Design the sequence.
């Protein structure tokens, strides 16, 4: 998986209460500069919502912001965490793709709308919004409610994901097909979001990484697998396979770090020991490969 740009909205400073920094001209975690086209969008650094969040402090206006310089391709996914704090002052918001320039008020967005508890896709043309999909109902019975929201653009096919599940099937729209920038759209007074990442979805279906342990993996010995670039936290068990194609599952303990949707960490397991008596089963011979799945 290639990550084009990301941000965890972790900043310090600001003079207001709670302390806030304007998003415009801020540098993201991936080193890209945020560009916004309207005032009111600010970084919240009081860490009271999602551990470094952003919100629109102004009125009910359309706010667009983009990460300058990434990506330079047309097909990718933009995802971010959206936290609905209230259904009163939050009109709509979500990640946006294919801005013709960073922060432009054009492109495709996956939108959460707390006013009517829906999720949908919207196209923007110089600030004018047009809904291009049907509504998907979201549960806002208990607030705050948190969602991982994503818009996927591939050619003229636009789709929407909630919590890593495609809930809005690809919609055909050919208005914005060129390469464009990733960012966010907000039309709110009070809301919070976090962990935005623009990434290449073409690599997300690749199986987990493998590591060849070698002949020194003796019965009862432990092994450690280091991984990086996963789209989701790995799960136990791992699969151990020898050069002859024999394989056995082995439980592993995963220590995972999620950085703007990109997972890295370690998985530790123990190769089964030989029994003190009786017949041994599941033995592996020669070089042993450990595959960590998701």
Sequence:
């Amino acid at each position: 998986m290639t990550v084009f740009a990301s941000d965890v909205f972790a900043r310090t400073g600001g003079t207001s209460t709670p302390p806030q920094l304007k998003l415009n001209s801020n540098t993201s975690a991936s080193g890209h500069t945020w560009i916004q086209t309207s005032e009111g969008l600010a970084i919240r650094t009081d860490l009271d919502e999602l551990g470094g969040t952003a919100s629109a402090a102004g009125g009910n206006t359309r706010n667009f912001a983009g990460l300058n310089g990434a990506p330079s391709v047309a097909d990718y996914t933009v995802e971010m965490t959206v936290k609905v704090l209230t259904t009163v002052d939050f009109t709509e918001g979500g990640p946006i793709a294919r801005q013709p320039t960073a922060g432009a008020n054009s492109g495709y967005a996956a939108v959460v709308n707390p006013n009517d508890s829906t999720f949908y896709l919207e196209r923007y043309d110089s600030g004018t919004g047009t809904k291009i999909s049907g509504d998907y109902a979201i549960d806002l019975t208990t607030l705050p409610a948190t969602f991982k929201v994503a818009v996927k653009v591939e050619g003229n096919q636009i789709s929407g994901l909630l919590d890593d599940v495609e809930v809005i099937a690809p919609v055909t729209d050919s208005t914005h097909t060129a390469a464009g920038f990733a960012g966010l759209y907000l039309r709110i007074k009070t809301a919070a979001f976090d962990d935005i990442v623009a990434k290449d979805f073409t690599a997300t279906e690749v199986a987990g990484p493998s590591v060849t342990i070698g002949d020194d993996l003796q019965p009862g010995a432990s092994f450690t697998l280091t991984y990086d670039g996963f789209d989701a936290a790995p799960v136990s068990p791992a699969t151990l396979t020898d050069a002859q194609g024999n394989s056995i599952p082995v439980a592993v303990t995963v220590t995972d770090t999620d950085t703007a949707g990109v997972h890295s960490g370690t998985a530790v397991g123990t190769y089964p020991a030989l029994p003190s008596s009786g017949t041994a089963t599941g033995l592996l011979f020669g070089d042993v490969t450990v595959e960590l799945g998701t």
